[in-house]
Amino acid sequence: MSWLDRLAENVDELRRANGLQQNGRSAEALPILDDVLAVATDPMTRAYALVQRFGALINLGRIADLAAAMTTADNAVRELPDPYLRGQMHAFAALGAHLERNLDRGVTHLVQASRALAAVRENDSETAWGWHDLAMAYSYLGFHGHALTAIEQARQVGVAAGIAPEIFAAPGIRLRNAVSLDHQGDTDGCLRVLRDIDVELARYVSIGADQLRPGSRAAYGYSLARRAALGEETSADAAAWLTGGGDSIRTRDLRHLGQVCLTLAGGKPELALSMLDSVPVSAEILGAAEPARLRSICHAAAGDHAAAHAADRYAFRLAAQRIDRLREGYLDGVAARLDAQETQRDAGRYGDETLTDPLTGLPNRRQLERYVATMLARGERAAIGVCDLVGFTEVNARHGRHCGDLVLQRIAGVLSRVMRRGDFVARFAGDEFVVVLPGAGTTQAAEVSRRIAAATNAENWQILVPGTPISLAAGWSEVGANGRTLSAALAAAAANRLPSRPLSEMT
């Protein structure tokens, strides 16, 4: 059963508006949503309609209306204990904050959206779209790795709900990654990603996939056109893929910049320059550096290498303002801050501030002991994981304690991000962290182990602490089984620690 089937009113109208939005027709969806809100009285129905209306305004680029729409949607969702609605609202809010160029607020909404969607128990088509919209938000704000993880989650949930994988192809995520590489001087890396997008498009066409979303057409078209502007031929017709695509500002800008690229590839750089100057594009679609980078390519093709160099330097300066290293640290910092705020609000769960590690915002050893003692008193059992950082001593020696603190904060953010709802993470001592998975057995622990290892290995430690490899040495045990105490479980887990691989089986 779809999430929408749980609503008490106007289900058919909301499903029709939802379908229009997914097909890039937000201008048609908006009056349907307004009509629903004029008559609906059910709180869940109204909350859903308000969230979708907020999303439609974002798609249409109506920035002046976003603040009021978000406040109304947030107030409606806040009154309901529904994680999907919270996740969807925060994903849209992150996109809205991006359009308003409010990075701090956008990152906060990203963290909240991720946590809410991860708490959804029944995965259906609406949840899949929630992950899709979160992936878009990650991508627009520059978190390309997180965007790819979220869109893969959308595909998995979507397949389980009967949605074809190509619906969540989301070429725009990799397109933004590609142009970001080019803005930072890695044109070869950009071309590699663009070729991969071209290969994917060819595969979808070859199998007769006819469910590509209109919004994907514009992203595929621009990927082809951008590759042509860099001097590579493509088998597909970029101009044909740039047609259609819906009424969003994203599609409009991609279509215009795509025509600029094709004009340049057609040997008319002066005309391409005039096209760039004639129509302003949003800095939020492909980054503020993209028009400058295209201008550089045009100047180079026209033989004006001094102007090309100046435009390239300007594009690089714009790109440097949004480098991923700072964003990754910022994301984990926001996660730790939210944890600290939750700790202060929820005295029943965490107690006073003496139960919190001030560096990471995680519960400390004292709170871990209280938490496990309460759990054992209820006769419950749990999987216990002990994680040590390998290379941490060298980090402090080579880079200083400040960098060591940043590494600890990064690891705390990674662990918090990959945990399931209801799991417990604590900083135990120094560079040692403990995770508790209530009610988990070997299968669940192995899955969490895999996520921890994958997330840790995916971090770019060489940017943060160059020349110092970082990995986790970790092991699993079980508490509450056969009367095993916390101390015994921690000792057993520590004895099983293995570096640089998914955590070991429980003993």
Automatic annotation (TrEMBL):
InterPro entries: Diguanylate_Cyclase, GGDEF_dom, Nucleotide_cyclase, Rev_trsase/Diguanyl_cyclase, TPR-like_helical_dom_sf. Residues 380-507 form the GGDEF domain. It holds the Pfam family GGDEF. SUPFAM superfamilies: Nucleotide cyclase (SSF55073). PANTHER family: DIGUANYLATE CYCLASE DGCM-RELATED, REGULATORY COMPONENTS OF SENSORY TRANSDUCTION SYSTEM. This is GGDEF domain-containing protein. It comes from Paractinoplanes pyxinae. The lineage of its organism: Bacteria, Bacillati, Actinomycetota, Actinomycetes, Micromonosporales.
